Queue: 2 jobs
Job 1
Amino acid sequence: MKILSFGDNVVDCYQDQALMFPGGNCVNHAVFARRAGAITAYAGAVCDDSAGRLIRDALVAEGVDTRLLRTEAGQTAYCVIDRQDGDRVFVGANLGVSIIRPEEEDLSFIAKVDAVHTGRSSHIDAWLAKFSRLTKVSYDLATVHDRDRIAFIAPHCFLLAFSGGNLSEDGALSLAELGGASGAAWCLVTRGDKGAVLYGDGKFFRAPIQPVEPLDTLGAGDTFIANVLVGLLSGNGPQNLLAAAAAAAADTCLLQGAFGYGAPMNVDLATMLTIDEVYKTTVPVAGPVN
């Protein structure tokens, strides 16, 4: 099957190690879906700087189609990360040129794939209705559990994913059911080391827990989402695809960075904003004219 990931990218900057790694939800998804057996492509924007070249080169090395990856003037997006007990802690970021409006070439490509993946960090919610008329939509709402936002997003989704590491099992089940009741065909809630819940066809399915001593949990949730989407598109049974997703996510936790490719950090951090500032100041992409 063919999957396009549309939207956000960053280089994840590990200041304590002076290293940067390619990442961002949509970049990660393209890589992990490719590793899971799909033919994948990535549409986004970077600059011709060290960070942008790192992202482009890593995608090419992983076999991801980059024909829709634009090069713009400015600064490639970055995120500064600290780590505590193996878990990621976001210190600050700048989205650079990464927030883009779909162009006709992108839409033509979307119409020819089996699914398009995007998420909250791509800020293109106004395009979801159009996307869903062209193909199946996978969307990562991450830690956003707001009912109104779910009600807007879910009707366009084949797969709607959430991060729910802070939720109880009952809370995760309720969130998954809410996503399904709001219109998503399938709803996934990842819960870190507590596994995951998938809801679809009126049934709940639980992922097995894969105990692992993590080196770095960055990218584990994206791995899970990508593997679940590939499994659903392939027609695999829920329990089988969840087991495969859990195993793949556990492997990701043994890597540094989301999927490797670390390089000496070469990013101007003078433009860094806090995460709250990023979401307060980012202007969502305007929707299609028709």
Job 2
Amino acid sequence: MPYVRHWFRTALLLFVIALAIGLVAAHTSLLQPHELHWDRRLQLDTRTGWLNQAMLAVSDIVSPVGGLVILALWCGWLLFVRHSPVKTVTTFLVVAVGWNSSEIAKILVARNRPPAIYSLDPEIGSNSFPSGHVAFTVSAAIAACFLARGTRHQKPVALAGAAVVALVAFSRLYIGAHYPTDVLGSLLVSCSAIICLSGLWHTWFQSRLTQIPVLSPLLARFGPLSEGQSTSQGEPVPAAAGTAAAVREDWSAAGGGQRRRHAAS
């Protein structure tokens, strides 16, 4: 997980901007009438039978149930196939924190959904700003980029992630479940939460992984293979060294660009 300098200020700024947009959109007439008109034009100009079914399917895949299944399968693959408990933990945290942050913003903004008469699949029981579907997709795309960082797959993964986010955002507008600012709010809120998580990970959580009872046996079992490391002679790194290497990571201090290294446990 990359370290973001000035992570707290950056995360707070993004969250405040998102809340400001949401509150203005929800409780004034500055944006909502224009957004509703834009939604209706999009729906009237593009809705067809086959596209209706395709967009409904896209929304179903990244629904709360679909998102939980995707996250469980992804983390299971990282842990039991790739033997990488640290990457499993970071992926789970990035997706879970970025996704669930949208629920906090929903409560604070309390924006009503677009009129149900225009929706292909009316939703009740949750507020409109921001979109939880888009928040999950943004968080999953960022987690995938973190995993691919520094590899030859970095750029293709980033492009694919951006395309999937755009597709899901379009599907939510097309179906009539959200306004355009709901989609923008999802991006800002999720990025804010993930930046905050990144700062907390490097300043506190990462060095304490081996102290968590649930993770200790996993790190002991899978630690040597977590980063695919080997010695200069091609032999696997010993278990203790592999676990420490998986948990320890260099990161830039907020001031002066100095490098610090967490002590091996």
